[in-house]
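Task: sequence design from structure.
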């Protein structure tokens, strides 16, 4: 069987986007890493939020080997993934006014904490209000989004604003409107989305920048090890005990 030309084209497209965000977003990545380090050093807590497939990149930095133990998932029931039935309900919930406020009010998030909000389009009510309300509560807000949507679509929030308009730091994923990298003859719809690959890479680059910044300040980054390597469970137990009051996925 010959190699797939389209599979190769997808890898090329994804690699090209990764190179762009590496080169063009380096300043924003460093700023986000420094903000995370500031929060950790000051005793604050870290949260990540994303709805739908944007939640995948948020989940990717929570409770994982090589990740910061202090990163917690800020979950909105029904929007975390395709486990909700019907799946279309998750998309509908992203447009509900007031939902973000209710979630934040019932969460442990407080002034001095940091929240990363991931939304590809950044146009729906949920991520926009999440950013607005989090900043009003005194949180630092980092947005990971595609700026292209602010130029080629209209906001679905009453303010007319996008996620990027309500963040302290914005990382642009460079994903084109529609999130599909490939087209081919005989297939009417574009396909092969790359947003998860690129957004997850941005999140991990941000975590790497935070670890680098903490180490430069003489602080041991509170990282988790794999439980599948010798000593991993013991290491993680020590980190959990030391930072237990800032880790919410254990309770």
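Answer:
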């Amino acid at each position: 069987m010959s190699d797939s030309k389209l599979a190769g084209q997808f890898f090329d497209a994804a690699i090209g986007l990764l190179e762009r965000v590496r080169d063009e977003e380096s300043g924003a990545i460093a700023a986000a890493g420094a903000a995370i380090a500031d929060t950790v050093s000051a005793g604050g807590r870290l949260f990540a939020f994303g709805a739908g497939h944007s939640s995948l990149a948020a989940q990717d930095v929570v409770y994982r080997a090589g990740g910061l133990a202090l990163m917690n998932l800020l979950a909105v029931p029904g929007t975390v993934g395709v486990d909700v039935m019907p799946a279309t309900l998750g998309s509908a919930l992203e447009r509900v006014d007031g939902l973000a406020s209710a979630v934040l009010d019932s969460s442990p998030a407080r002034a001095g904490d940091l929240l990363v909000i991931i939304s590809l389009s950044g146009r729906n009510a949920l991520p926009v209000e999440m950013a607005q309300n989090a900043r009003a509560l005194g949180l630092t807000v980092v947005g990971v989004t595609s700026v292209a949507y602010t130029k080629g679509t209209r906001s679905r929030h009453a303010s007319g604003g996008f996620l990027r308009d309500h963040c302290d730091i914005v990382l642009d994923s460079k994903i084109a409107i529609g999130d599909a990298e490939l087209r081919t003859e005989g297939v009417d719809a574009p396909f092969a989305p790359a947003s998860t690959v690129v957004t997850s890479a941005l999140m991990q680059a941000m975590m790497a920048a935070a670890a680098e910044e903490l180490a430069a300040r003489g602080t041991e980054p509170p990282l988790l090890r794999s439980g599948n390597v010798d000593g991993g469970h013991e290491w993680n137990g020590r980190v959990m005990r030391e930072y237990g009051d800032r880790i919410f996925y254990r309770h």
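The first strand starts at residue 46 and ends at 50.
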